[in-house]
Amino acid sequence: MSPLEVAGRGRRDTHVKVLSVTSGKGGVGKTNIVANLAYALCERGLNVLVLDADLGLGNIDVLLGLNPVLTLQDCLRGEASLPEILITGPGGMRILPAPSGLADLTHLTEADRLRFLAGLDELDEPVDVFIIDTGAGIAANVCFFSVAAQEICVVATPEPTSLTDAYAFIKVMSRQYGEKEFKLIVNQASGEREALSVFRHLTTVCDRFLTIRLEYAGFVPHDDKLARSVRDQQLVTERYPEAISSRHFRELAKEIDHSPASMFPKGNIQFFWRRLWTPEAAGPVL
Question: Which residues pair with 216 in a beta bridge?
């Protein structure tokens, strides 16, 4: 058994739901959804860990008005432990902030991987939900993190360009990486009718050209209070808990919390990282 495999044998028996939240294009509010969803899950009494995996342009800390001193890069360099780089956000969510300039995690050495896996066992609190806020598009890192997650949530808006790019992402993940199940979150919809129309349109295209299953996770409506909260570096779920968008974030959190256990394979956080760094996860299916 390799040192990496030994480190991956976690001491806890905590089962973690691992979600990647991604989008075909930037500007669809993906990170805002991640942050508010994490807060809503914390409100439900869940322990939430968020990884800012937009490694070159990480900004969840900016969205929340936080100023991390250390990042994942410091941990991988051996200059800080994993607990030392964690920062606490609203509602008690814990965040692994993104480094700047760490272009591709697939190029880490086994020593780097071992260091991180060992660091996961140093966390002093259990984790119920692990959310990966990926970059946008179909770059290698985006696909890399999405392959390793148990659930892939795609964020799209009603704009035609957003739908086109969402389909492009799903196509790449399906044809090149063998992924067959996705969830859709529609953001900035005028209402449920428009959100369902977006879902049906994307489903029709996927059914015609791909062999995948697209599930409707829900939607977040356009909300002036949400836009105001973003400008003020606050979460709408915290600042305006009764806002219409806040109610929808809580519905999304409820959906994740109540997902059948069979949808989330048995494992812990170490399982996620072992899968992330296996040769199979490093490249597309040939």
Answer: 184
Could you tell me which CATH class the domain 14-282 is placed in?
A: alpha beta
Phi, psi of 248 (to 5 degrees): -75, -35
Model confidence pLDDT, tens digit, residues 153-197: 999 999 999 999 999 999 999 999 999 999 999 999 999 999 999
Name the β-bridge partners of 22. Answer: 154
* pLDDT at 104 > cutoff 80: no
Other CB atoms within 10 A of residue 112 CB? 16
pLDDT digits (tens, 9 = 90+) for 136-145: 888 877 887 8
Q: Shortest CA distance to 48 belongs to which of 265, 187, 252, 275?
A: 252
| CA–CA gap between residue 127 and residue 273 (Å, rounded) | 14
The SS3 assignment for 243 reads coil
For residue 44, the one-letter residue type is R
Q: What angle do helix axes 269-276 and 140-148 make, rounded to 10 degrees?
A: 140
Query: Which residue has 């490249």 as its token pair?
Result: 283
pTM of the model: 0.86
Is the CB of residue 166 less than 8 Å from the CB of residue 157?
Answer: no
Rounded Cα–Cα distance for residues 272 and 20 (Å): 11
Provide the H-helix boundaries in the chain: 3-7, 30-43, 60-63, 72-76, 82-85, 110-120, 140-148, 160-177, 192-209, 224-231, 236-239, 244-257, 269-276, 279-282
- Cβ proximity of 5 and 115 under 8 Å: no
